[in-house]
Amino acid sequence: MTLLVGVIVHVATCLAVAAKTQYSIYILLSVAFLLVFGARMAIFRQFDRVDKQSLSHAGIERWERILVASGACTTALLGIASGYAIFVVRDSFAELACISVTMATMVSVVGRNYGSRFAVDLQTFFCCLPMIVCSLLVLDFYRGVLSIFLIPFWLTTRAMANGVREFLYENVIARREITIIADRFDTALNNMPHGLVMVDAENRIQVVNRKACELLKIGAPERLKDRDLGAVLRYGARYSFMDASQPELILRQLTQVAEGSLSRTLIHFPESLSLEFSASRRADGGAVLIFEDVSSRVKAEQKILHMVRFDALTGLPNRQYFGQLVQEYFAKYPKKNGPLGFMVLDIDEFKHVNDMRGHVTGDHLLCAIAARIKQASGNAILGRLMGDQFILFFPRAKEQVSLDREIRRVHAAIQGNYEVDEVTFLVSLSAGYAILESDAFAMDEWSVKADLALFESKSRFKGGISGFEREMDGRYIEQQKLKADLRDAVSAQALHLVFQPMFRADGSRIECAEALARWVHPERGSIPPDVFIRLAEDMGIISDITRFVLFKACSECMTWPEHIAVSVNLSARDLRDADILSVVAEALAHSGLAAARLHLEVTESCLIDEPAAVRAILAELRSRGITIAIDDFGTGFSSLSYLDTLPLDIVKIDRSFVRNIVEDARRLKLLRGTVNLARELGLKIVIEGVETEEQLALLNKHRSADLVQGYVFSRPVPSQNITLLQEGIGRRTVQRRRNKVA
């Protein structure tokens, strides 16, 4: 457009001069201007069609030379028109018109051709040289001086073009660098994993990256510039996933973080989104808000916290978190009055489920029981203590009677049948509970009281429930004292032994005597064996008692007739590791007793823990010549399977098989069937608990026993009485023979 305006002015000026002076050369110059203009337009169109990216350096120089040459043609025509007006026409209008247009064109050279030094120099030369030469040829002093001044004008024009070129070049380079930096910044900003929002002092958004828009779902970044952040967030709350309260929360916490009162803050949004915000105040009063998606971290922390707080199997709170929940209840209702309940549940004989059906089924049963307790417990706080024990906290009730009724209702609701892994289990849970009015909660104290009540209910019958009574404290203290006294007695070897002999079925001879530990307390007198043996098992000192009995029994057996053996009971704890092998060997070596005179009795309960290991230990003992007997046969869960798999020599049939065999023919058949099965397996039969002559006669009639142990022959006696009993049998035998001879 500037060239079009220029050519119009040039043509119009030449035509005006031609009309004024009648010089036809100016008409020719007008035509020349039009031809040059047409040629330049054609060149420009051709250049526009060229692929600029494919141009080489030489190609660029060629196009520059064409541009400079076409421009120089225009300025040469202007110079010729001005010089001709000065030297030939010598008309003031012609000179003024031509020189004015030429000088104006020279000024435009700075604006259009500053990019090329060669173009500026060439066009200025063709403009000024004809005017200088013609002014000098006129031989007018003043015109000559004036023409000389065109040289400084030429230099000034050249300097101005250079200055513009350098200034604009520097700005172009700077703009390129700024654009590159801005692109890099924009790339980094929109690819960073954090959301970023920069606001001014009025909370208007200046910069926001794409991640921030994605996380907050607030639209495209280019639409948010200069928008109020609060308005944008409120808009997002209306049309996206945010709650209505969260925009104000973000702005409030942004202020707190920026002021330094809060280092960072975590805000949870719907759809499991968690964003962590931090902010910093800028010097101009604005702020920079940075936030990131920490949903994965929050989920991981919640999972870890859940693992720490909850039982992995049942999903119930563990003991520690249960106590925390109870404490939170008291903090939430500090002034609420009324009785509180605390109950401990214990699954009866749960260990047998693991042993019979495996731990997977046992775990499934535990989960089913936990689910039923949770369903029945209502608003009570439920937790898993350990193993097969659960704990419940009942919040304050209006009265103690209703709370007691509620606790017993929960206990009754969880008893009964459970269908697990296509098996029906009849489950009973023993329970102990405490109801207290005290406002001061002490977890350990309440646990002890509930445990005491649980111990009381388990000692009575399985599946029972007992409430805590103050007398239980006294019994608990007495039991603890009894445990301490038992520990001292075992350490001082203050126990003593009695022996219950095993006779041949006809009473003609004592074959063996079972060693039985007895404890006479210095204050309480004789303590029943089932009491102190159970205490010893709970205390973990039963193996010490076994060691004492083994050494003492072997030594006493050495004082008896050689055909009499001694039998010693082993506990489940004795068979948990191979130490019993060395203890038995030491006892035999210390006493000098032959291994064949030692019998070791085990019960079926010994086989529950690690049956393979127990079987290996018994096999090793038997290989050393020691006789192995299974005691109380028939009272366990899998008696018949043990007969075939264990390394046994003797089966001791429990007294429960003998009871009422005289009156009940079915019980006698059951006894005879068990005896026949054992004999088919090559085992010797010892029948326990024979108390009457009628029972003995019936056993002898059917030849059901190899040995008989019971009050019908003898009660447990001191060691020296074994020899006396055998001697008495011998004398009676001799007397019967003499009577027969007589």
From TrEMBL:
The keyword Transmembrane applies. Pfam families: EAL, GGDEF, PAS_7. The keyword Transmembrane helix applies. SUPFAM superfamilies: EAL domain-like (SSF141868), Nucleotide cyclase (SSF55073), PYP-like sensor domain (PAS domain) (SSF55785). Residues 479-730 form the EAL domain. The chain crosses the membrane at residues 26-45, 66-87, 93-114, 126-155. Keywords: Membrane, Transmembrane, Transmembrane helix. Residues 338-470 form the GGDEF domain. NCBIfam families: GGDEF. This is Diguanylate cyclase (GGDEF)-like protein. It comes from Rhizobium laguerreae.
